Amino acid sequence: MDSMVLEAALESLALVLSWPYILYPLAGTLLAMVFSATPGLNSSSLMALAIPVTYAWDPLAVMLLFGAFVGGATFMGSVTAMLFNIPGKAQNAVTLLDGYPMTEQGQAKTAIGCAAASSALGSTLGIFILVALIPLMRQAAIALGPAEYLMLAIWGLTMLAALVGNSVIKGLAAAGMGLALAMVGYDPRTAEQRFTFGLEYLHDGLSLVPVFLGLFALAEVIDLVASGRETLSGRLRVQHMGGSVTEGVRSVFRHFGLFLRSSVIGTVIGAIPGIGSAVAGFIAYGHASQTARDRSRFGHGDIRGVLAPEAAMDAKDGGALIPTLALGIPGGTGTAVLLGALTLHGLTPGRELLTENLVLVFALIWSLFLSNWITSLLGLALVNPMARLSTIRTSRMVPIILAMAVLGAVQYRGQIADAACAVFFGLLGYLMKRLDWSRIPLVIALALAPLFETNLHLTLRLQELGRIDFWSRPVVIGLLLLTIGNLFLPALVGRLRSYRGGRRQ
Amino acid sequence: MTVGRKRRLAPVLPGSGLTLAFLATASLMLWVSFDLSRTSAWIPQLVLAFTVMLLLLQLSAELLAARAAPTGGETPAAGGRGARVVHALAWISLLMLASWLLGTALGSALFCFAWLRWHAGDRWLVSLAIAGGLGLVLWLLFVVLFGVGLYAGVLWPLLR
Lengths: 505, 160
Description:
The structure holds two protein chains of two kinds.
Chain A: H1 3-16, H2 23-37, H3 43-53, H4 59-71, H5 74-84, H6 93-104, H7 108-143, H8 146-163, H9 168-182, E1 185-186, E2 193-194, H10 208-227, H11 245-254, H12 256-270, H13 277-291, H14 304-327, H15 333-344, H16 351-355, H17 358-381, H18 383-389, H19 394-413, H20 416-434, H21 440-464, H22 474-504
Antiparallel strand pairs in A: 1-2
Chain B: H1 2-9, H2 12-33, H3 38-68, H4 76-102, H5 104-119, H6 124-145, H7 155-159
Helix pairs in contact in B: 2-3, 4-5, 5-6
């Protein structure tokens, strides 16, 4: 590791541990725990709600808070999965496969202890890999030009379209809509108004804050109301928990090889845009069950079925920050909202962030590290009250979240029209969720649009002037091939599978 | 024949409504983009032409799938869900109106009280306590802790 990186890491650690900055990771972790333990809500909703609140803060505080939001999100969702058979988020569904049978067998505390330990240790390993790669990321960010950034944006979008949701066409169309919506307002090059339809509100373009609040916070609340559930989890009481937390923690060290492999799987998957925690968890679970000598207990309360996905899902956070910080390509919704927050604070991921603002990058990493450990330790201590959150009546949670979302939208620029914009995107987000349109490509396209448009324009200008030769740049060609692969591989694999299925029949 | 066509298209509309809405929006934007200067128009036109093409493909796939699938009306559960969504949107509109008139802190607290008392059927005291608590937390969080002024609404300046 070069001395500049080490200096930044130490300077940042001193800042994180100083007063009052230490409060931000603590507060962020607690909020993320509450949101992730509440079925129907998620860390993206929390981040969207926090953007307007933090608008006037200094960037270090924002980095610390958002780092804690990313880190504190996964583990508590698994607690509701293990206790109620209801995952806090889709990604936690894999934990219930063996976690809930363990609860039924009176081993809830063992499962929670194992999940807490593998989650904290897995995230630490993921963060180590991220830190080890920072010098490389800096070099890459400096070496890349507009042509490479353009291809990275296109590759990132096609990757998401191909991997998220159930249709490449729908994913690409949603990304196209996101790019188009981002072009509303002044053209940065000509100052000409585009697609404003005479509305003054649209002159400066769509603000990301009400859009995020609508797509994530309001859409989830509308879905919650529409579901007609009486309580968030559908249960009224938390059931009795048996087993031993210590035994659960020990099991991680008993299966240390599996833990290491699962964490590496999580980090690698996290670094690929579009492949979320759910995939990381399921792949690690599949790996655990395939490599086990005795597979018969999987699905019936095997501790390895809790350990592997938890380690992978938390290690993924470190991996997901690699493309986000180095290239400005968010890996999922959480990192897309994080990217939006960074942009609003004048921080541009890539070259600028990794050279001029390295201390802030490390603040985010330290906060992520701290929050993962705080979540696991506090999660063990507060498992009972946190689990009770999911028994709160929906009708009491909804007005509070609605009020926070509308207030957040209005507060950002002091315009009531932003609340209307948030409601519009809330309805759109709800419809997209119900009709199987993934919101991720739309949101990430909105976040990536400036990178795409600026670099497309620059690349063509440089090509015209003879300053670059687009087709002779190896990174560009490599990314182009990967993009083509993203577009056609899923269809090819599908055809191959149906052909094989047909032959078997 | 008209009845047959209606039967075939009926199940398509709820599922394809969003695709149609996206298609209409993208087509409108593409149409409008021809009024822009060449420099400002070409990137949006490239993106929108591609998006319209994809949406047309998606719509045809949905229409073909709906033709192949057996017809069936809307289930009562789906109908109930739709009514609850409309209900939620009506309440959200009320929140926006209250915030616009009375400001975000008071508007949010009043909305919360109304929701808890008349939508959730909570007791007066519980509704008042939760709504009052929400208003107080918002004021403490924004005004006292972060020093950010809350949106005051249009009614108070008029009364002054």
